[in-house]
Amino acid sequence: MNKARWQMANQDQGGEGSTPNLKVVENNPKDGQLEYVLDIPLRVSVELGRTKILVQDLIKLHKGSVIELQKMAGEALEVLVNDKVVAKGEVIVVNDKFGVRLTDIVSSTQRIRQLGEVA
Fold first, then answer.
1. Residue 99: beta bridge partners?
2. Which of 10, 60, 89, 93 could tie 102 with a disulfide, CB 3.0–4.6 Å?
3. Which of 116, 119, 47, 115 is nearest to 80 (CA)?
4. Which CATH number belongs to the domain containing residue 119 in this structure?
5. Under DSSP, is residue 16 helix (H, G, I), strand (E, B) or coil?
6. Pick from 57, 77, 75: nearest CA to 67
7. Where are the alpha helices (DSSP H) in 3-107?
8. Residue 119 is part of which domain span?
9. Cα angle at 26 between 22 and 30, to 5 degrees?
10. How far apart are CA 87 and CA 83, in angstroms?
11. How many angstroms separate the CA atoms of 78 and 53, rounded?
C-alpha cells in the first residue's frame, strides 16, 4: 500500500493515531467461554525417532529391513499435539497396549510461542 493510500485509509478511520472506540473484554475461563474449545479434536502422536534416507535406499526396503533412527535407546520420546512438541515421556505398557508416561511438559510460554510457527 503506497503512502497516499495509507494516509487516506487513516483519515477514513478517524485520523492517524486515533483509536476506535473498542470495548475491552477480558477472557475469563470461569465465564464459560472455555467450553467452546473443549470439544475440539486434536491429533496426538508420539515420535519414536527420525532419520533421513536417500530415495535409492528407500526403494531397496523390504520386509525385515531395519531403519536406524537418530534417537538413542532409552532417550525420551516426544509427544506432539497437532505436530507441535508439548511433552516428553517414556514408553509403558497398559493393558497390553503401549502408552507414554510424561516425564517433562513444555512450558506454557514455549507452547504459545509454537502456535505462531509454521509447520
1. 92
2. 89
3. 47
4. 2.30.330.10
5. coil
6. 57
7. 3-12, 55-60
8. 43-119
9. 150
10. 12
11. 21
Q: Tell me the C-alpha distance between 34 and 82, whole Å.
A: 19
Query: Could you tell me if residue 96 is inside a domain?
Result: yes
Q: Residue 82 domain-assigned?
A: yes
Q: Which cell is 99 given?
A: 502408552
Amino acid identity, position 10: N
3 state DSSP class of 103: strand
Look up residue 26 and give its three cell numbers: 477480558
pLDDT of 1 reads: 47
How far is it, in rounded angstroms, from Cα 47 to Cα 88?
10
User: Is 16 in contact with 10 (CB distance < 8 Å)?
Assistant: yes
**What burial class does residue 49 get, using C-beta atoms within 10 Å of its C-beta: 0-12 exposed, 13-18 middle, 19+ buried?**
middle
Give pLDDT tens digits for 3-29: 565 556 555 555 545 455 556 555 565
Our CA dihedral for 5, 6, 12, 17, rounded to 10 degrees, sits at: -160
The answer to whether residue 24 is domain-embedded is no
